[in-house]
Design brief:
single chain, 3-stranded parallel sheet, 8 helices, alpha/beta
């Protein structure tokens, strides 16, 4: 039925009244982090941050990076957001165009991967779009890329080895269980 019908379906689905942040959203919002990069279209992470009274700067388009504030959570939505249907990345061609469409956000992601230790939550490491995203972001770092971590429920040995070769250590765990353990270790309120 075409691209427009697909986007319309996504928007209607995620803008239904009564959608509330899941435990995972709330746990992420409770972490002492100031940078969150997501590929989710919904606004549940934003709502979870609001529920925790954490101010944020939401970036869906590059010009919004100008509003960066080091005292606020920077939430970058690489694959768009439901309130802006034209921003939604959903097809193969959309994935290939993300870095051209968002060059400054892409540069920020490259900088974070080059200078910070990142934790990937909820990403399907086997998905081609995630592999493309990771490859495009870290390829310039070569063998000097920083260690990153990814939480996966039941990663195969092949998945672990593939990503370890790319300096991403895959940790076998349920994301919610992992985040609860982090909260416990850091003595954070859930």
């Amino acid at each position: 039925m075409g691209h427009q019908s697909l986007i319309d379906y996504i928007v209607r689905r995620f803008q239904q009244p009564g959608l509330l942040p899941l435990e995972t959203h709330r746990l992420v919002a409770g972490l002492p982090v100031l940078r969150i990069i997501t590929t989710n279209w919904d606004n549940l992470q934003e709502e979870a941050l609001h529920m925790q009274s954490k101010p944020l700067v939401k970036v869906v388009e590059d010009h919004e990076l100008a509003f960066f504030d080091s005292g606020k959570v920077l939430l970058v939505k690489l694959h768009g957001s439901v309130e802006r249907p034209n921003s939604i990345v959903v097809t193969g061609d959309d994935y290939y165009d993300v870095f051209d469409r968002l060059p400054e956000s892409s540069n920020l992601l490259r900088t974070l991967l080059a200078t910070q230790t990142l934790l990937f939550l909820g990403f399907a490491l086997a998905d081609q779009d995630f592999r493309l995203l990771h490859h495009q972001v870290v390829r310039a770092m070569g063998r000097h890329k920083r260690r990153a971590y990814a939480i996966q429920r039941r990663p195969s040995r092949a998945t672990r080895e593939y990503w370890l070769d790319k300096n991403v250590q895959v940790i076998a765990a349920d994301v919610s269980d992992f985040l609860r353990a982090v909260h416990d270790q850091l003595a954070l309120a859930p």
